[in-house]
Write a structure and sequence with these properties.
The chain has a 3-stranded mixed sheet with strand order 1-3-2, sandwiched between helices. It has one domain. It is built from 12 helices and 3 strands; from the N terminus they run H-H-E-E-E-H-H-H-H-H-H-H-H-H-H. The protein has 222 residues and is mostly helical. The relative contact order is 0.16. Helix 9 packs antiparallel against helix 11.
Length: 222
């Protein structure tokens, strides 16, 4: 999957790791904290590699099938605290860990047809299919599952487990929805459900790490 992304530098301009080691270490540290909660099915099966896309206009993140995580600089700069970013990343990690892309495609195409397509595709065609999976819209059921999983993941840390709700609250009043919301149905009660799940799980963490987050944001290219 990474090869397909890196082959489209105009569409996915990756932030070089050289010269940006600190911000990469920081984002990977958040990822590791989520992965090490012991609540993921594919913790050891997927590589869970992290890349940053240098695009300040896009408020988005996604996790490609197989555990390849991509976070846009636009999203990092837009958010206010580490728990908010951890909440969004937890949501995206959940999509991969819960195999939502595979389930969505199987539902749309039928498992037998999907298998025939995958077996019969040439390498170039498979790359195009992989890119298409990234933009696949998830069902409302899958979005709710990912939201609840994000709370569950963060509940196993000292973060505010409702970090994802902070993102949605911050989006209120924005002139136009970002890509994240255009591909992620956003019912009115989404924040409420996240907050309720945090209370239901009696999550005790409340850390937001605002100061550290601001420091890290300032390391990103202007």
């Amino acid at each position: 999957m990474q090869k397909e992304i890196s082959s489209k530098p105009t569409e996915y301009p990756l932030l070089p790791e050289k010269g940006n080691e600190q911000i990469y270490q920081y984002i990977r540290g958040i990822t590791t904290r989520i992965l090490n909660t012991g609540k993921l099915t594919y913790r050891n099966e997927f590589p869970w590699e992290v890349k940053i896309i240098h695009d300040d206009k896009t408020l988005n993140a996604f996790c490609a099938p197989g555990g390849y995580i991509y976070v846009y600089t636009g999203l990092i700069k837009f958010l206010d605290s580490e728990d908010q970013l951890a909440g969004v990343m937890g949501h995206e990690i959940a999509h991969a860990d819960l195999r939502h892309s595979t389930r969505q495609m199987s539902k749309a195409m039928g498992l037998t047809m999907l298998t025939q397509i995958l077996v019969g595709q040439k390498q170039e065609e498979l790359q195009q299919l992989a890119i298409g999976i990234i933009g696949l819209s998830f069902s409302r059921e899958h979005e709710t599952e990912a939201d609840m999983a994000s709370v569950n993941y963060l509940c196993g840390t000292d973060y505010n487990a409702a970090g994802a709700a902070g993102f949605f609250r911050k989006m209120e009043g924005q002139p136009s929805p970002p890509i994240f919301l255009s591909t992620h149905p956003n019912p009115n009660n989404r924040v409420k459900k996240i907050d309720e799940e945090k209370a239901k799980l009696t999550c005790s963490g409340g850390q937001t790490y605002n100061s550290k987050y601001v420091q890290m944001k300032n390391l990103l290219p202007k």
